[in-house]
Please model this.
Amino acid sequence: IKGQISDTKKVLKNINTLFEAAINLEEVFDIENEELIEYLKDKIIKLSGLNSGTMNNLNGNINYKGQDGARAKLDEFINNLYKSIKKSVEKMNEEMIKEKKALSIELDSYDESNYNESIKKRLERLNKILSHEGVVGSEYTSEKLENFNKVISERMEKDIPPGYKDKNKTNNGNGLRTFGKLSFQKSYGDAILWLDLIEYIKNSEYENVVIVSDDTKTDWSEKKGESELKKELKIEFLQTTGKKIIRKQSLEFIQEILELSEDETKGIRDEINEFVTINSEIEFQNTIIVRAKKKGFNEVFLGEDKWYSVYIKDERIPFLKYIAVYQTTPISKITHYAEIDKIVESPENPSKKMILFKGKAIKLTRPIPLGFDWNAMQSNRYTYFEYLFNSYDIDHLLAKDFNYYQKCLDDSVDEENLDSDDNNKENDE
Model:
């Protein structure tokens, strides 16, 4: 929550900075800095259809760059054109300033002080719920986790909800989630939540229970995508605790306890949808694929166990576990991968990152060749680590995205196909 509040404040400040720039706008073109001249030059180049490579070749030729060359004559023409329209531009700037004064921008909606007051009241309401005695359970012990592991393993084998749709969760190599000295199978998360809730409610005074979750897979929901809790879960909960339980999605819950307006509801719905989509996909894409020419591949990727000057958004870094390399022509294949040790600032370019490997790069048993899309690897790409072992070309690899994975976990897809892919991967290894 603190992170969301902080990020929202930064967004509000940036929005107001944009508005201030709009209010203080005084010129369409900054004549003193000759932006108009540069604009005219760029316009002429675009109209000519010449690309940057051709222009570089021109700049290297005496017929263009010489004292009496074409560039000098072209510059003279542009300067004369600029002088002839300068007065018109000045008049346009004057008209713009006059029109701007007649306009206004509504800033109240982006006032940080209003936001602070609003969020304070909402947090107070949430705190009354979350600070209630016993709401946050006690820390798990290794004995309790061992018992959960045994029970959940048996439930998974029989496809007892919730959580059996997460059987294939292995986003970080060994499939474990670690907290301090405690660790458990990542695929057991939903089942642990469910069993822990049952155990807690058994000895509580609560008569009705609401579980808040946006996970609407069919091992939680009666119908995929809806919040209605699965009948088997309602029955199990009632039989083991003697209490009733319902399930609400985040937006439903927030809307009820905070008495939101229609606009606020829409805004929160959009934020929840964006948050779930972006973070789920980023977490899923745990492997970055970089391009390498022969020399860089041999000397750096294999020779130094690292890779320099990679542009990576900061929010991706916590989820990246592997790096794979695509060797450019004439090889044109993804050939090796390595486990990432850490990602640090690049010594060559502070705006980019350097990726350090945990060990030596490993060669793929079956390198992944370029498909029909020759432009597929013109820049760095991201994928799911498991897909490196069951994709016949790069088109196939990139088509198997996060949505594909979700469909593989859905009842509408034959799960044996996913299992066969996993078996292929094991054979490859």
